[in-house]
Amino acid sequence: MRLLVIEDEIKVARFIERGLREEGFSVETAADGDSGLVKARDDTFDLVILDVMLPGRDGFSVLRELRASGAQTRVLMLTARDGVQDRVQGLDLGADDYLVKPFAFAELLARVRALLRRPVSDEPALLHAADLQVDLRGRRVTRGGKLITLSAKEFGVLAHLLRRAGNVVTRSELAETVWEDLPNTPSNVIEVTVYHLREKIDRGFSPALIQTVRGAGYLLQKS
User: What's the CA angle centered on 186, arms 128 and 154, to 5 degrees?
Assistant: First the structure.
């Protein structure tokens, strides 16, 4: 697996690079946003570890340009800022996960491995069912032409249900793919998230798309 680390703090970059190499990964580094974007675009990496605060082009700008080019490379963002808005901005721009500094290498490694388990495919950027449309790259959701605002977890659940439309999705499957099962996600957390998602997606619209399959999980109707 080839990983790219875009990090301007030399000690942090070396710490990450050394640890990942010891785990058997091939690692390249970049110390600023501009050179990092060039490498991310020109080479084939399985995952990019991207710091937010970078000289020149910042991490958000790098991510925005990367996604605008159509790249589906997995991206794990790093930041020293623990504000909710910063995390939301990164996820809305297309980051796959977010880790706040300082962090233990064991947690970084666990998140890297979880992301690498996710398949990267040539799936369409736009998913839909009935009058519901989800733009995966722009993270934009509409139903009946009405814009719907979702949290990061609600968006993740909806995207996964759409990918598996017509099939039952278990709670354990959602825990593994959306919450990455770190730590084991309580069932009630998933139920509350699906409840809020259903309130936003189905209330006031017809037909109701998200169904609960008793004793099994959830199913999103194809139409």
Answer: 25
Confidence of residue 65 (pLDDT cuts 50, 70, 90): confident
| Residue 178 contacts residue 157 (beta carbons within 8 Å) | yes
Closest CA to 186 of 201, 165, 169, 171: 171
- Name residue 18's amino acid: R
* Longest Cα separation, the chain: 55
- Between 222 and 195, name the one with better pLDDT: 195
Residue corresponding to tokens 């794990």: 76
- Evaluate whether 46 touches 76 at the Cβ level (below 8 Å): no
221 within 8 A of 130, measured Cβ to Cβ: yes
If pLDDT is split at 50, 70 and 90, which confidence band does 47 have? very high
